[in-house]
Amino acid sequence: MSHRFDADELRARAALRLHSAPVPPRLGDDDLNPTARMIPEGEAPTPAAVLVPLVTRPDGLHLLLTERQPHMRRHAGQIAFPGGRIDGEAETPLEAALRENQEETGIQPAFVEPLGFLDSYITSTNYSVVPVVALLRPGFTVTPHDAEVKDVFEVPLSFLMDPAHHERHSRDWQGHLRYYYAMPWQGRYIWGATAGMIRNLYRLMYETP
Prior knowledge:
Layout: H1 7-17, E1 27-28, E2 46-57, E3 60-68, E4 79-80, E5 83-85, H2 93-105, E6 112-117, E7 121-122, E8 127-136, E9 149-156, H3 157-160, E10 167-173, E11 176-182, H4 192-205
Parallel strand pairs: 1-7, 2-8
Antiparallel strand pairs: 2-3, 2-5, 3-4, 3-9, 6-8, 7-8, 10-11
C-alpha cells in the first residue's frame, strides 16, 4: 500500500474526505444481509456516538479500541470503540463521544483532537451510531473503567486499512446465514459493527476512487 499513516497525512485527508458534521445513517449491520435482516423497520433507532481514536507511534498511527468485560449484559467480551448513547437532545454526538471515551478509557477530552465524522451506522440492536474520528495528543493516560472495560489496546492503522484484512465471516441466525466483516488481529476478534465502521473509515479515507 502506498499510504502514509502519520498524523499530518491523516489531518490532510480528513479535511478533504471526512464529513464536517454528522450525516443521516447510510450504512449498517444489515448491508451484507438483504435476506436475513435484523434491524427493525419503522422503529426509531437510539442515538449514539463513538470515538475513533488514533494514536501516533514510532511505526505510524494506531487505532485505540476497547475490550468489553465478559460479564456485560450486552456484547460481552466484544471489541468496541469507546462510546455509547447520546444523553438527551441537548448533547451533541461529539460531546457524547468525548464523555463516553473519558468514562471508558480515562482519557481526558483535552487530549482529543476531533477531525471529522464517518457515515452514521445502524447496528443490529437498532442504535444509530455517529463515529467521530480523532487524534489523541501525546501525554494521555489510560485508566479503563473496571465495570465495563477489560482492556484498552491499539492496532496498527496500516493493518486495518489493508483491504486484504477485511474478511467476510458468517454465523447462523434463526436458520439464516448472516454475514459481517471481521479483522482478526493477534488473538483479538474485531468484528460486527466495529469492523463495519473500520471498513467505512477505509472507504472514506484510503480507498482509491
